[in-house]
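WARN no homologs supplied; continuing
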Amino acid sequence: MVDILEGHKVLAFDLETTGVSTNNDRIVQVALIGTDSDGTDIHFDTLVNPQRPIPSGATRVHGVHDSDVRNEPIFKHYAQQLFELIDGAVLVGHNVRRFDMPLLENEYYRCGAIPPKPLVILDTLECVRKLKIARPHNLGAQCSRHGIDLSNAHDAAADAAASLLLLWKVMQDHPASFRRSLSDIEQWLIHGDSRKDESELGRTISDLKAFDNKGRIRIDDGNYIIAFGRHRGKDITTVLKEDPRYIDWLLSPKGVEDDDARDTLKEFISSVSDR
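OK structure emitted
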């Protein structure tokens, strides 16, 4: 899909449920669509007996009736298989962080089991909000805006596949926002962007003059800006105050490999520290 996802298990995830309470409602359908780390296709889609009647309002949304799930296995039957699929995967979905994952976790707790932990969650609802893409932000509206067919909306497999396509479209349309590690992307989605990545005119870090031969440090109006990793976009003097151990690492050959650049930075840090 996108270079940053290569080599990872990437799964789009969606649930259909008895309602909207992550604490009290139950799963009636679960789908995981994507690829394993070796590129093998993964398609898991099943109905689940929620062990309670499905309210008519929920059925009107997803079309699953009591009769559809009466003879299906309960969640515990699928718990281990789902754990093996989700644990350590890049998980994609629309509102998956606040709804689908908490509800899934509670199903595991009811079984007395530990829930899976994805490597990261790339929530497409968070993506379109962070990128200030025009409302409405629901999956159907965003699929329509991005030319994605969602004729079978509110079927778990269809919604999961659509969210994966939506992520791909968004990453293609806004590449600058995704030029960072998966963990940094997730932190951006959750907490916002602390890096000095774009000015009001849209200038990015890559537009700044490289200071070292790898471009890990950039120069912005006489300031040294870190252009990679967890402190991407920050001035070196700021990081020196916040995370001095990181600066120690940065000034080692594992950080800035360019000897001349590293020596200059050491002199600069020394002069700043002496003030």
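The two ends are 49 Å apart (CA to CA).
OK
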